[in-house]
Amino acid sequence: MIDHFGINCANWEESKAFYDTVLGALGYTRQMDYQVAIGYGTEGKPDFWIADMSAGDAAGPNREVHFAFQAADVDAVQAFYDAALGAGAESLHAPRLWPEYHPGYYGAFVRDPDGNNIEAVFHGAQPQG
């Protein structure tokens, strides 16, 4: 439902490397790069933007936000989580089913370099057992 959204990043170089890594694990790449803002997505459409907090209009207070990226399956959620931890992210919740959200909701949560709560989610997971 969300067309696109963006966040400000305090450590621009660290954030670019982090998002290249974790979004790459989900199949997303840089679609546009304006040096002070980068849009990630697929097929030429940037859906998620990061901006250098110290650059012009992007400057301002940075607050934690939560956002979720769609994953193709539970393996992609795991790949995202592993990539995030490998890139230095703090684990908030390891990959698992979240039945309190809805049946089949499988997600993993990490904190990015700027303290944002990010998630990869697959909505069609089957319960084990």
What can you tell me about this protein's structure?
With 129 residues, the chain is an alpha/beta fold. It has one domain (5-54, 64-122): 2,3-Dihydroxybiphenyl 1,2-Dioxygenase, domain 1 (Roll). It is 21% helix and 38% strand. It is built from two helices and eight strands. The chain has helices at 12-25, 74-86; strands at residues 5-9, 29-33, 37-42, 45-52, 66-70, 90-97, 106-111, 117-122. The strands form two sheets. It has a four-stranded mixed β-sheet with strand order 1-4-3-2, with helices on one face. A four-stranded mixed β-sheet has the order 5-8-7-6, with helices on one face. The longest helix has 14 residues, at 12-25. The radius of gyration is 15 Å and the shape is globular. The relative contact order is 0.21. The mean pLDDT is 90. This is Lactoylglutathione lyase-like lyase. Keywords: Lyase. Residues 1-123 form the VOC domain. InterPro entries: Glyas_Bleomycin-R_OHBP_Dase, Glyas_Fos-R_dOase_dom, VOC_core. GO terms for molecular function: lyase activity.
First and last CA, distance? 33 Å
Compute the number of structural domains.
Answer: 1
Strand order of the largest sheet: 1-4-3-2
Low-confidence stretches: none
Number of strands: 8
Structural class: alpha/beta
Rounded average pLDDT = 90
Strand content: 35-45%
Binned, the helix content reads 10-25%
Q: Which radius of gyration do the C-alpha atoms yield?
A: 15 Å
Which H/E pattern describes the elements?
EHEEEEHEEE
InterPro entries: Glyas_Bleomycin-R_OHBP_Dase (IPR029068), Glyas_Fos-R_dOase_dom (IPR004360), VOC_core (IPR037523)
GO molecular function: lyase activity
Keywords: Lyase
Organism: Mycolicibacterium rhodesiae (strain NBB3) (Mycobacterium rhodesiae)
